[in-house]
């Protein structure tokens, strides 16, 4: 009789936990699964904390309900699998604004991540240069071309559209800059359209026309009780042995699988497993792959990350607009790049005592020096800038929290998708029982990370000879 499988998931973020759940669902029933997490807590950037006796997200706050094809997103499917569907809640206020020229202005409709499909609709915040978007008689991009978002949009619509619309939209998601971020990775629908359309305006409209319609359906959701409930439920459903404060320092191929070296150098633990899902950021993954798959390590090791801080303030009975929040272009010269009015946006978080929770995101790629400030300085600066943007002095906070996420958000430069595809092809050929999962490879957002982890798990099942179920 064959011995039972022993599988390791390195990394206890949502990608790793999704992989562990999928392995449990697809592997033989007696399979042993071990999740190794270097820190003291599971969940990665999903972390629900407490402020003044109530829950508040100190990391990601929501997820997309639908996938690009129009079906349930991967995380919604996982939530249903975990029996948490009745806890999904949706924003009660959806309108957001841009802080432009010292004023809050509604984010224009009809854009694709800030790239306009109707130039007149964006005139309130930016002045496009439509004369530059001329038809040269050929598609804007070749079949395999990738450029930065900023390079394409600046050339076609001018600087203001990038600086005042596209940059803050991308910055809110990636903490990056349009001039650095890959079009194919961050805006794949527009990249596909740009390979057949001759003008940017036509490409945006084509991408919008091809997108599923969500009429009457909520776009975003979260979980009542916080996203940490998803983390806890996934960990339980995986049936895995959870090892926190357990750093995997080395991966060594064996004749039948892998040997993991875990723990401190002076007292290492060696664990033999049949297969490994490597669900850690690209640079730690590259270190583990050096000497094992050097070509793969070289391709993923150059991926850079942005650091951010999330500053949450509890304000007694402030005067806030009926908005979910606002984005701030870098040209405004503020430390804040985005703010969310939690207790306005999410009805289930509203409090009886009149206290409002407001969170601001601080930190743009290449400007990490600003994050060297103390927590007190960051909180005071956020309070001052919020008051300035809202045009009224806000009351002194009665509570607050500063959450720092060092190296949190991957920065996908042009060519990212090709580099990752090549890395995975090499890895699959040389070491089919070792797979990569996570935001560093497949994109940001909870649904993408869940799908990445599940796909990595499926590859492991295939490499080991299929499922017993």
Automatic annotation (TrEMBL):
<dbReference type="Pfam" id="PF01593">
    <property type="entry name" value="Amino_oxidase"/>
</dbReference>
<comment type="function">
    <text>Involved in coproporphyrin-dependent heme b biosynthesis. Catalyzes the oxidation of coproporphyrinogen III to coproporphyrin III.</text>
</comment>
<dbReference type="InterPro" id="IPR004572">
    <property type="entry name" value="Protoporphyrinogen_oxidase"/>
</dbReference>
<dbReference type="InterPro" id="IPR002937">
    <property type="entry name" value="Amino_oxidase"/>
</dbReference>
<keyword id="KW-0963">Cytoplasm</keyword>
<keyword id="KW-0560">Oxidoreductase</keyword>
<comment type="pathway">
    <text>Porphyrin-containing compound metabolism; protoheme biosynthesis.</text>
</comment>
<dbReference type="InterPro" id="IPR036188">
    <property type="entry name" value="FAD/NAD-bd_sf"/>
</dbReference>
<comment type="similarity">
    <text>Belongs to the protoporphyrinogen/coproporphyrinogen oxidase family. Coproporphyrinogen III oxidase subfamily.</text>
</comment>
<keyword id="KW-0285">Flavoprotein</keyword>
<keyword id="KW-0274">FAD</keyword>
<feature type="domain" description="Amine oxidase">
    <location>
        <begin position="14"/>
        <end position="461"/>
    </location>
</feature>
<protein>
    <recommendedName>
        <fullName>Coproporphyrinogen III oxidase</fullName>
        <ecNumber>1.3.3.15</ecNumber>
    </recommendedName>
</protein>
<keyword id="KW-0350">Heme biosynthesis</keyword>
<dbReference type="InterPro" id="IPR050464">
    <property type="entry name" value="Zeta_carotene_desat/Oxidored"/>
</dbReference>
């Amino acid at each position: 009789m064959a011995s039972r499988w022993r599988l390791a998931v390195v990394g206890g973020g949502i990608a790793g936990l999704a992989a562990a759940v999928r392995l449990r669902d697809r592997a033989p029933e007696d399979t042993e699964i071990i999740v190794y997490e270097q820190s003291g807590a599971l969940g990665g950037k999903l972390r629900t904390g407490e402020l003044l006796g109530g829950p508040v997200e100190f990391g990601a706050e929501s997820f997309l309900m639908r996938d690009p094809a129009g079906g349930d997103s991967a995380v919604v499917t996982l939530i249903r699998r975990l029996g948490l569907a009745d806890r999904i809640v949706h924003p009660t206020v959806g309108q957001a604004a841009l802080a432009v020229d010292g004023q809050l202005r509604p984010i224009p409709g009809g854009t694709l991540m800030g790239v306009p499909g109707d130039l007149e609709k964006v005139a309130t915040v930016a002045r496009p240069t439509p004369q530059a978007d001329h038809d040269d008689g050929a598609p804007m991009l070749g079949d395999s071309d990738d450029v930065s978002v900023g390079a394409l949009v600046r050339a076609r619509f001018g600087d203001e559209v990038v600086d005042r619309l596209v940059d803050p939209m991308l910055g809110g998601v990636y903490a990056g800059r349009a001039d650095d971020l890959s079009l194919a990775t961050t805006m794949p629908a527009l990249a596909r359209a740009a390979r057949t359309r001759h003008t940017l305006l036509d490409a945006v409209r084509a991408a919008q026309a091809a997108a599923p319609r969500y009429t009457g359906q909520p776009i975003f959701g979260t979980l009542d009780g916080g996203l940490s409930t998803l983390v806890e439920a996934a960990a339980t459903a995986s049936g895995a042995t959870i090892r926190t404060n357990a750093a995997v320092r080395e991966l060594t191929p064996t004749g039948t699988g892998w040997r993991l070296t875990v723990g401190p150098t002076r007292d290492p633990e060696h664990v033999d497993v049949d297969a490994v899902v490597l669900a850690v950021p690209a640079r730690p993954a590259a270190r583990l792959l050096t000497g094992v798959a050097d070509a793969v390590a070289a391709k993923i090791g150059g991926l850079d990350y942005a650091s951010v801080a999330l500053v949450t303030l509890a304000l007694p009975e402030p005067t806030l607009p009926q908005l979910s929040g606002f984005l701030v272009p870098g040209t405004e010269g503020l430390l804040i790049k985005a703010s969310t009015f939690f207790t306005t946006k999410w009805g289930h978080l509203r409090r009886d005592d009149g206290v409002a929770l407001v969170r601001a995101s601080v930190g743009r790629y290449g400007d990490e020096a600003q994050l060297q400030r103390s927590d007190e300085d960051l909180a005071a600066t956020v309070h001052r800038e919020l008051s300035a943007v809202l045009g009224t002095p806000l009351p002194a906070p009665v509570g607050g929290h500063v959450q720092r996420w060092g190296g949190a958000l991957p920065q996908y430069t042009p060519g990212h998708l090709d580099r990752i595809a090549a890395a995975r092809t090499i890895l699959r050929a040389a070491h089919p029982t070792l797979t990569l999962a996570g935001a560093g490879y497949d994109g940001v957002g909870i649904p993408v990370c869940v799908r990445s982890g599940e796909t990595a798990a499926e590859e492991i099942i295939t490499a080991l000879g299929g499922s017993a179920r």
